[in-house]
Specification:
The complex is a heterodimer of chains A (353) and B (241).
Chain A (H helix, E strand, L loop, with lengths): L8 H9 L25 H5 L2 H15 L3 E4 L5 H6 L2 E3 L7 E4 L22 H15 L4 E7 L1 H9 L1 H10 L1 H24 L5 E3 L10 H21 L5 E7 L4 H6 L4 E6 L2 H8 L4 E6 L1 H6 L3 H15 L6 E5 L9 H14 L11
Parallel strand pairs in A: 1-4, 4-5, 5-6, 6-7, 7-8, 8-9
Antiparallel strand pairs in A: 2-3
Chain B lengths: L2 H13 L3 H13 L4 H21 L5 H18 L13 E6 L7 H12 L3 E4 L6 H11 L3 E5 L7 H12 L5 E5 L5 H6 L4 E2 L3 H11 L11 H16 L5
Parallel strand pairs in B: 1-2, 1-3, 3-4, 4-5
Classes of the chains: A alpha/beta (353), B alpha/beta (241).
Amino acid sequence: MQSGDEITPKERMLAILQGKEVDRLLVSPLILNFASRSLNLAVRDFCTNGENMGNANIACFKKYRHDIVYLFSTTSTLAEAMGTKMYFPEDDAPQVETPLIQTREDLKKLKPVNPEKDGRLPVYLEAVRRCVDAIGNEVFIVPVIGAPFTTSAALRGTEIFIKELYTDPELVHTLMKVATQSVKNLIDAYVKAGGVPVTVEPVATGSMISERHFREFVLPYLKEVYAHIHSHNLPGVLHICGKTKRVIQCMAESGADILSIDNIDLLEAKELVGGKVCLMGNVSPADGMLKGNPEIINDMVKVCVAKAADNPKGFIVATGCEVPIHTPHENMVAFLDAGRKYARLPINLNHYD
Amino acid sequence: MEKSDILYRLAQSVIDMDATRAAEAAAAVIQHNVDPYEAIIEGLAKGMDKVNELFENEEYFVPEILLCADAMYAGIEALRPYLPKETTWNKKKIVIGVVKGDTHDIGKNLVKIMLDNAGFEMHDLGRNVPHAKFVDTAGELKADLVCLSTLMTTTMDGMQVIIEDLKKAGIASRVMVGGGPISPGFAKNIGADGYAKNAAEAVKVAKSLFQEIHVPLILKTSELVSVRRKREGVRCSPEMK
C-alpha cells in the first residue's frame, strides 16, 4: 500500500522519543503471527525458521509500512527455551504441551537461557538480524519477550502455578528469579542483534490475579526487567491484555514507559495512569480486525484517537492484542489508513465529521 | 457439635480455600449423623456461592476460585461414600469443553466448577476437543446445554461449526459460549443461545436458559438484570418509569 507518509517510521519514533515535532502519532497494530500471511506461510513454517520469520516480516513491512515491526510467535517462547515442551499446530501459534517443572525435583533442571543456543531463540535472533539488515534503517525491529510471570506460568503450568501463589510462594519466587534472569539474557542478546525488545505479561492480567498478588509476585521482577532495559538506554514497553483496570496502576509503577492495553476504557486508563506513562491501544482484535469491516475499524480507530490522543505522556494507535492471523487484508489497510488520517497532528477529528 | 456449626465450618473452609478443614468438617458431618446431602447443599455449596459472589465483586480472582473449589471437592469426596447410590435429582445435563485448536482451559474449568456447584450435571470433554465430539456427546447424553470455550481468535469460528452441526444432527441442546475474544455480538451471530463473560455470569445465564424468561438471552448478565428490572417495572409499577 502507499502509506503517503513523508518520513520513515524510525524517524517518527525517534522524533517522538526526543520530544520533537512530528507528523502524526505512531500507528502500530500488533502484527505478530499475521506477518506470516505476507509470504503465504503456514504459522509453523513461519515461527520455526529464522529466514522465514525474518523475510515474512520484511515483506509485511514493505506491504503495510506500519510503524513498529514486532517479532513474535507465542508468549511461551522463553519457557520453551528453558525446557517446556510445545506443540506446533500447522497454521496457528505454538502452545504449551508439557511444562518443564512437573515436581519440585524438576527445579534442578531450571537454569537461565543461553539465547544463542536454546529452543527457538536462535530462530528469533536470525529473524531480528535479517530484519535489521533489510529494513532496520527505516523501522525499529522489536522482538517480543514473555515477561517473568508469564514465562514462569509456562514453565510450571498456569493453573498449578497461580494456585502456588498461595500454596507454595517459595517455588513461585524461585521460578520468577530464574525467569527474570532469562528475560535479561534475552534482552541483551536482542539488543546485540540490533533489536529493541519489549515484554508481555498476559498471565498477570487483572482477569487472572489480584492487585495484591501482582504487587507481591509480579511487580518486583518487572521493575528489574525495565531497569535492565533502561540500562541499554531503551524505552520499556509492557503489554498486558485482558482486563487491566485492577492492575494498571501497578503496571505504571513497573518502570515501563509505554503500556499496551486491551480490555479497558482508554479514558479510564488515561485518568488512572496517563500522567505517568504513554498508552497504546486498543482496537478489538476479534470484533474489529477479524470480524469487523473497514467501516467498523475506521470508527474504532477514531474512537481510540478521540479518547487518548491527548494523553499527557503520549498515545500510540494499536490493537488491544495480537492481530488475528486470518484478519482480512482490507481490514488491516483500513486500520492503517484510519490511523494515518485521525492521528495526524494536530489532532482535529471534527475535520472528518 | 450443632448441625449449624458443622454447616458453617463446611462453608467457611471453602471460602478460606482450606481443603484440610473441609475434609475435617466433612468427617464431623458423618460423626454427628448430619445428612451428607444437606451438608453439601447447605454447607459446601453455600460456601461456593459466597466465593462466586466474591469473584463477581472482584475480591476473589482465579487462584482463589481454584483453591476454593479444591476445598469444596475435598469435602464432597469425603462425603461421597455416604451419599445414597441413586440420586433422584433431575439435574440438567451440560457438556463443556474447549474447542479444537485451543488448549487454554482455565476459563472452562472455572465455568465447570461454578455450574457444578449450581446444580448442573457436568460432562467435561477437556480441551482441544474435536467439533464432532461435542455433537456426539450432546446427542448421546441428550444434553440440555453445550458450553463452548476458547481464548483464541483462530478457533472461535469452530463454535459456529458445532452449533450448525448440532442443528443438522437434530440435537436440541442449547449452546452457551464464552472466552477471551468472544463478544455478545459474536455469540448472537453464530446462533448461540447464551453468552457469558465469566464464570459467575455463566451460572446466571445457564439458569436463565431454563426458566421462562422472555428476554434476549444473548445479553450480558448486567444487561439481562436491567432488562428484567425494566420489564418488571413496566409490568408491576408503571409509575416507576
